[in-house]
Design brief:
The chain is of the alpha/beta class. It is built from 19 helices and 9 strands. It folds into 2 domains: 207 residues, Periplasmic binding protein-like II (D-Maltodextrin-Binding Protein, domain 2, 3-Layer(aba) Sandwich), CATH 3.40.190.10; 204 residues, D-Maltodextrin-Binding Protein, domain 2. The longest helix has 24 residues. The two termini are 14 Å apart.
Amino acid sequence: MKRPTIQTLLTAVATVSFACSTPSILAQDNKPPVPKGNVTVSFWGIATQPWQVMIDDFQKTYPNIKIKWTKYSTDEMKQAVRVASAAGKLSDAWFNWGGSLASPYEDGGHALELTPALMAEYGVDKNIVPAALDLARHNGKLYGVPIWVRPMTIFYKKSLFDKFGIAEPKTFDDLEQACAKLKANGITPIACGGKFSWMTMRTTDFLIEHFAGPALHDKLFAMEASYSSPEVVKAFTKLKEWVDKGYFNDGFISLDPNESLPLLFQDKAAMTFQGPWIEDQNIIAAHQDPNNYVPIIAPADQKPVRVSGFQEQVQFWSKAKPDEQKAALLFAAFMTTPDVAKKHVSEFGSPSAVVGVFPSADHPITTTMVKWLQSGVQLYLPTDQALPQEIVNAFFQAQDSMILGSLTPEAACAQIQKAVEDYKASH
């Protein structure tokens, strides 16, 4: 279970150019097969994601192909794919994350393997940043086309930091001092919605990265080290300390994640652990100034410098009818053609997994993150993508039980490690 990084993400961008005679069509030197006759592709995607802009352009370019988009929330999406795969009837294509969220469908033969020949046929081999492909691979094989790369890190509200004379945290000690000063001034340091556990997990993962370091963190994900290690216990102890000090909003453990960001908008909280999607989906949509919400490299005080993150991809049903499968692959190839991706970057979002695609100037958050990726900042997968879901469930239960006071940090870590050992024994 080697953990890939994106150290080389977009580093070749400056030296690579692509020629295309007409916008919104695939490059002339890459002509993937186009099904003949009318074809309808069933596609499952997250309702808040901007698929429609690509669907509209694709259907104008290929009028014989219709993309039927079924919309789901994040957790509904996970359930729909899980239930459909068990029933043996998936959509022709679907949105998915990577790591352990995708591996059951890859190991189970549900997701189509994109062989080197197939990648070349559809242009994936040259249009996608190689490091993004590395993040999408499972056991050395590719089962999806990466669309976005998503760093997750700490955001702070600049106006509040300026008001209380707090400098941007560069070290872990700086971060704790900022939390203490904010709390002393009646501001909740960190806005979090812990109802589904994964938003709280982002802080837990960061604390593990700080106390355990990249090498041990990766070994934990590979199930080659113990969650009862002193370094992990320190991370859980620090999380409980922050909870007890009131560094998170009251009742955060039962708050929906979508309800946490307004705390920053209302000046009730000053920081949150989020990803680049909040720029379009939340900040700009709420008519807030994105320059006032600043992402920083979460100060783990470790080398190499890493933040949590993942790629997001489109996968394809291995048992789809030939024409539907070809059309679904063509749709993914179309979206990741550099000319098309550049044309729609403002509406479709960034950071993109496509070579040579940068955010527009009015998107300072994603621009900052792309600059990180180009400068060599690496990613580590979040726990809920890095580990099998049985262990993730145990991780969430132990984390939340400790926060609520029914487990000590040591007992929480021991509970996670038992789940690891049970999983390894049964596999």
